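Final report, results section. Input specification for complex C-07:
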Amino acid sequence: MDFTFTPEEERFRAEVRAFIRDHLPKGASGDGDLESGFASLPALYKWNQDLLTKGWVGFNWPKEVGGGGGSLVEQMILKEEMARHKAPPLGISYMGLAWVGPALIKYGTDEQKQEHIPPILRGELQWCTGYSEPGAGSDLASLQCKGVRDGDDYVVNGQKIWTSLAMWSQWMILLVRTDPNAAKHLGITCLLARMDTPGITVKPIKEMNGGTMFAEVFFDDVRVPVANRLGAEGQGWDVTKDALANERSSIGDVWALKHRLEGLKELASRCRRRGRRALDDPGIRQRLARMETQVEAMRLNGLRFLTKQLRGEPLGAETSINKLIRARVEIESGRLARDIEGTYGVLAKKSPHAIDDGKWQRVMLGWPPYVIGGGTPNIQKNVIAERLLGLPHDAP
Amino acid sequence: MDFGFTPEQEQLRAQVRRFLDAELPLDRILEWSAKPQPLDRALWKRLAELGWPGITIPEAHGGLGLGCEDLIVVFEEMGKSLAPLPLLAVDAAATAIRLLGDDAQRAAHLPGIAAGETIATIAVLEESDVLAPDAMTTRARPAESAGAAATTRGGGATATRGGAAAGDDVVLDGAKLFVPDAQSADLILVAAREQDGVSLFAVPATAPGVRVTPLVVVDPTKPAAEVHLDGVRLPASARLGAAGSAWPAIVRVLDRMTIGLAAEMVGAADAALAMAVEYAKVRRQFGSPIGRFQGVKHRCAELLVDVESARSLVYYGAWAVEQAPDEAPSYAAMAKAAASEALDAAGEECIQIHGAIGYTWECHAHLFYKRGRHCHVWMGAPDEHYERVLVLQE
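Structure output:
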C-alpha cells in the first residue's frame, strides 16, 4: 500500500490548488445546496472558460476530441481538490459532459463529434437525457417511445418523464424503440434531437420541495434526421449502458458529504437539545460519528476501486457500493439535521425563527435526485447481488 | 497511489489459506467448539515454522520483520476460518515488548515468541470494564527488603533473576479480566498502577501468586480468562519501560490489536456472507432459488456493502499503524465499529437465510453468529468507538 503520489502528481495537485486560489468565483459554494447557488451566471461562464484553457472540462476525454486526456489519478486529484474547495462543477453542460460526450466519443461519427463536443465543452448548450418513461423506470429496457423510419428521418411518438433540465436544454439524447419485434434490449435506438423540433412539448413537474428541475416531454410526430442517430439502429441499449458505466470516481461526492458533515457538527455546536448543546448529546454524537465512518469508508472504497483500475482490472458493479452508501448518508444527513434542531426542525425557509433560513430542511426534502436518479437503491442492490455475489437474476 | 496488496502479500494470503483449510476446516472448529481444548502446541509450532507468531518481530530476534499490512492478511484469513489461535494476543504482547522493552528484554522474550515456544498475551482491562488508568486497581508496589521478601512466597527465587538488587523488586496485586488467551499463555504482560501512572510488567504465568481462571464465553473460539495477581513478586527487570510511563504505548498496542481484531471480523463476515449466498443459490422454494427473492438478495447486497466498507477501513488502519501513526487511533475506532456492525449482521443473517437448519448444531452458521455477537463488544462496542471518533477530534 502506498498513499503517496508521484512528484508529477503532486505538481498537478499544486497546480489545481493554485488555479482554485486564483480563479474560484466569489461566493462559490458547491456544497450541494443548489438554492444558494454556485455563483452568478457570468462568473460561471468565466470559470468554465478558465477551466477550458487548462483542459479540465472533459478532463477524462481524449485530447483528439478536445478533452484533457487526464490520467485516472489526475482525474481523481482534480475532482478531489475542486470538491474540497467547494468549487462549482467542472463544466456547465452537465448532462452533456456526464452522458452525451462519452457516448459520442465511443459511438459518434466524425461529423457528430465535431458538431456536438465543442459546444458541450464550452458550456454553450444544455443537454437533457430522454431515458425514463412512465412505464419504464428501473426496467428501462421496456421503454415504448416509438421511432419509425420514414425516408431520411425517424418519426418519434411517445413520452419521456423525469427528464432533468428539459426546459433549459437545447438538445436531448433519447432512446426510442425502432423494432417492436426484437428482444427488448435489441430493438432500441439512440437519437439526438433538437428540443425546438416541432412536436416536442415540455411540461415541467413540480417536486416535493417546491422546486422544478425535471419535466415530462411529449413527442408528437417529431422528425429526427437519421443523421442524428448515435450508433447503429438497434444499438441504443449499448450506447446508453456504456455511457452510464462511464461514471467513475465518487471522490467528488465524498467531499460534498464531508462538507455536509462539517456543517452538521457546526449546527450541533449551536443548537440546544434537552438543556445542553446537541453536540454533547450522546445520541446525536453516535449518529455524527457513524456518518463520518460511512463517508470515510466511501472515500477508501473509492481508492480501492481506483487501484483496481490502475492495475488494469476492469471495474464493474463495485461503483454501486458507493452509490448505496451515498444514498444512506444523503437521507440520514437531512434527518439528523432535523433531530439536531429539535422542534425548530419543523421551520422552513422564510419562517420566523428558522435556523439558517431552513437550509437543512431543503437538504431533508432534496435527496431524491441523488438517491433515486441513475438507479434506485433497490436497483443498486440487485446489481450488487447479481453481478458481485452471483445471485440469480431478478426478472422471471 | 496504490491501495492494494503486493504479490508477496497475496502469496502470504494463499499460504495462510492453504494451511487453515488443511488444518482447521470449519468441521474441526465445530467439533472443537463442542469441547474446547487447550491450544494445540504442536500446531502452533508448525505455524511458527511458517513465521506467523513472529511475523512483525524483527529478524534480529528471530521474526520475519514484516509490517502490520502483512499481519492483517493473516488475521483476515484466520477470521474466515474462525481459527481459535492466540495470534492477536501474541502479536500485541510482542509489539508491547518491542515498543517498551530494552535490548535485554527484547532478547529475552521475542525469540521465544517468534519460535512458537512462548505464548504471550497482554492484560489491561479489569472488572470495571473501563479502559483508563484511573479505573485500574491492579497495583505495583516496591517489595519489602530482601530479608523480609525471602519469607514471602517465591520472592527469593525471582529476586535474584536478572541480577537486580532485591530492593528493586516489585509486588503486583490485583485482578485482570477479559484477558485474551491467558489460559494458553506462558507470559502475561500485566498493566498496573505504579507511582502516578501505569507500568507494564512481563509476568511468567507460572510465577507464584498468578492464578488464571478461564471464562466461559459465547464464542469458544475466542478464549479468554481472568488473571489474579496475589502478591506476585517480580524483579525490576520485569518492568517494560520506565515506571509509570507505559500507558501511551499500551494505547498504541491496543489500537493495533483493535485493527487486527477488526481484520479477523471482516474475514469472518466475508465467510458468513459467502456461506449465506451459496445456500441462497441452491435452496429452492416456490420453484426458484431463494437468492432470487429480493428479501434475501437485498440483504446480501447490503451486507456486501458493509463488509467491503469495514474492509477498506481495516486496510487503511493497518497501513496507518506504521505509516501514519497519528491517524491510527481514529481508524482503529472506525474500523472496529464498522466491522462490529458488519459481522454482527452477517452472522445473524447467515442463520436467517438458512432458516431452521441454521439453528442446528451441524450447520456452521452459528459459529459465525457467535463470533459476531461476541466480538461486537470485545475490545469496545461500536458506541464506544463512535464516541472516540469524535473525542479524538476535539
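Residues 31-37 of chain A have pLDDT under 50 and may be disordered. The beta strands of chain A are 127-130, 146-150, 153-164, 171-177, 188-194, 200-204, 214-225, 229-230, 272-273, 276-277. This concludes the modelling results for the funded period.
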